[in-house]
Each structure stands twice: as C-alpha cells, then as structure tokens.
From TrEMBL:
One of its GO terms (molecular function) is medium-chain fatty acid-CoA ligase activity. GO terms for biological process: fatty acid metabolic process. Residues 50-352 form the AMP-dependent synthetase/ligase domain. Belongs to the ATP-dependent AMP-binding enzyme family. Pfam families: AMP-binding. Coiled coil: none annotated. This is AMP-dependent synthetase/ligase domain-containing protein. It comes from the Eukaryota. Transmembrane segments: none annotated. InterPro entries: AMP-binding, AMP-binding_CS, AMP-dep_synth/lig_dom, ANL_N_sf.
Length: 356
C-alpha cells in the first residue's frame, strides 16, 4: 500500500509560488565557493561535496556523475518522468549519484535495505511496481523480471561502469511540487510496511527547515555514518549538506572507532541512539576529539538519559534530539540554542516552519 503524505501539502503553498519547480537534485549544482580543508585535500575553486570511497568529489564531479546516470537510464533503459526505480545498493558515491540522477529525470526513487531477503523484497516490488531494479544481488533479484512491471534488473557495479560511457545529461526535468520524488517504506508497526510517498515539495521544504534550525552553513563538514536507504541518512542528513552547500565525509557504515577517528575532521554528526551508546564505550571519545564539532544530532529512536548524560560528561556536548516520521520527515527538535534547553528524554517542540 502506498500512502500519500498529505502533511506536506501545507508546505507546498508556503514554499513555492511557481507552478513548476526543479527537482531537489538541482540544489547540488554548485561548483564555486570556499572549500573547508579535509586532511590534505588540495582544492581549487571547485566546491568539495564528498570524501567517499577513498576519493574526493566536488559538486561538479557529482553533478556530472548523476548526469551520466540520468543519460544511461534514459537512453539505454527508457526511464522517464513518472517511472519508478527501486534501488538495493551499497552506500557509495555511485549510489548517491544514482539517487540524484533518478530525481533529475523526474522519476521516483525507492531505496531498500540491501540485506532484505528475496521474500521480503518481493513485497516491496509488488507494491511499488518499479520499471527497473538496481541491486547488489542481480542473480537473486533477476527473478523479479517475471513481474508485470519490472523490465530490467541491473547490477549496481555494471550500471556504474556503463554510465561512464555516457555524457552527462545536465538538463533537469521540470517537476510539479506535488510530484512524488521518493517512496520510502515504513517500519510496519501496524502490519506490513507501507510506502510513504514523499513529494519534491516535501523534500525541499524539510531540507530548508532542517538546514535553518540546526544552523548548517557552507563551512560545515558532515560526518555521514547513517544508512542510505532510510530518511535519516538519505533525506535529513545528506539534504542538510546539499542545502547548505557544505561538505560531507561519507562512511559506508557506522563503526564506533572509525567514527571517533573522523570527529576531529568534522563539524556535524547525525546518528541513532545506539551509535552514541557505542561511542561512549571508547575512551578515545573526549573533549579533544570533538574540539571541531559544533553539534551532535540524534533521531530515529529514543535516546536514553543515561547515554545523553555520559556523552555530555565525556565531550562537553549535549546531544540535540529530534523526532520525525517516514511520512513527515523531521517534525520536532530540541533547540540549537540555548544549549542548556536541550533536555534528556525530550524531542523538543515543533520544528520552526513545519507547523505553518
């Protein structure tokens, strides 16, 4: 079952006055400006977006990579505005470029946990009715070609290789505010997981709201350790980077020691409570390791007062807890300032701009 998120409708009229907008992918087409230094990055006038897969990528690099994905999907596989593409992929710079490439075509992006079994995935395929599946397990997912809608099942590595043979498609398909940009599946607490349809307007409005309330700016370096198939990592954390035209360290998965090692090179981190619970078990987490950090944000589950207090004792930082849903994205947040009003066990008040 697909659920249209009516909660985004009030944002559409507030945020957009034109009949047509460009997809959210247009926000990353930014190549100039000051670049924060990460390690020994030798930067030019190109704005740094990512440190991922052991390489640096500017906004222009990602713009071109996503444009190549748009081109190969359009010309080789017939993907166009209104089509649905389901992705069970690894967390890489290619997956990011694929996501943006799908949006810039005006197609709908459906991310899935790549560890789902074939039986679990079958429910999502039957419900979302994708035209194309991009997967890290092509052999297993090939059987979905037997369904009425799936025309192609592609290996993520092969698609990435094929995309390099194409020139970037730099045009961005015009999208209406209420066009569905992405379908994300709920956790299924009231039955089988349901698809929440998130519009371009919803993505854009929420990206602007989160960027504002958490004071993201162009000099930020976002330590991204979250999964890329969930709203927390895909829309909340990464979209704050896009909307602030800042930079991101893109780690493939969370590891407490590795995360702590990257903290001195970062200014912002978002995580789930279990991440913070694991981090406080390491003595390397201390005030010196977080001296460049300005905020730690937690969501997706309840942060216990014990972890909140222990983290503050070790680092001097009070974690900023917020609340959101797949259908609505971020709804409430503790304040960025004053810091002493961030309360353990509370998710704060309605996020400024989300209740208008």
């Amino acid at each position: 079952m697909l659920l249209y998120s009516k909660t985004t409708k009030f944002l559409i009229k507030k945020t957009f006055s034109k009949k047509s907008i460009r997809p959210i992918s247009n926000n990353f087409v930014e190549t100039a400006g000051f670049v924060p230094k990460i390690e020994s990055y030798d930067y030019s006038n190109k704005k740094l977006l990512l440190l991922a897969d052991g390489k640096y990528m500017t906004y222009n690099d990602v713009n071109n990579a996503s444009g190549r994905y748009s081109n190969v999907l359009s010309k080789q596989f017939g993907i166009q505005k209104g089509d649905t593409v389901l992705c069970r992929t690894s967390k890489t710079s290619d997956a990011l470029a694929l996501y943006l490439g799908i949006l810039r075509l005006g197609a709908t992006y459906v991310p899935l946990n790549p560890t789902y079994t074939k039986r679990e995935t079958e429910h999502f395929v039957n419900d979302a009715k994708p035209k194309l599946i991009v997967t890290l397990n092509q052999k297993e997912d090939k059987t979905f070609c037997d369904t009425s809608t799936v025309k192609h099942v592609l290996c993520e590595q092969q698609l990435a290789k094929d995309s390099t043979k194409f020139e970037p498609l730099l045009d961005v398909e015009s999208a209406n505010p209420e066009d569905v940009a992405c379908i994300l599946y709920t956790s299924g607490t009231t039955g089988r997981p349901k698809g929440a349809m998130v519009t371009h307007a919803g993505l854009t409005a929420n990206g602007q709201i989160c960027t504002d309330i958490w004071r993201f700016h162009s000099n930020d370096i976002n330590l991204h350790v979250l999964p890329f198939y969930h709203i927390h990592g895909l829309f909340i954390s990464f979209n704050c980077t896009l909307f602030s035209k800042s930079s991101c360290i893109f780690l493939p998965k969370f590891d407490a020691k590795e995360t702590i090692n990257y903290l001195p090179k970062s200014t912002v981190m978002m995580g789930v409570p279990t991440y913070y619970a694991r981090m406080v078990e390491h003595k390397e987490l201390n005030k010196e390791s977080v001296k460049n950090m300005r905020v730690f944000i937690s969501g997706s589950a309840q942060l216990t007062p014990n972890v909140f207090e222990k983290f503050e004792q070790m680092t001097g930082h009070r974690i900023l807890e917020r609340y959101g849903m797949t259908e609505t994205l971020v709804s409430t947040s503790n304040p960025y300032e004053p810091v002493n009003q961030r309360i353990a066990g509370s998710v704060g008040k309605a996020a400024k701009g989300s209740n208008k």
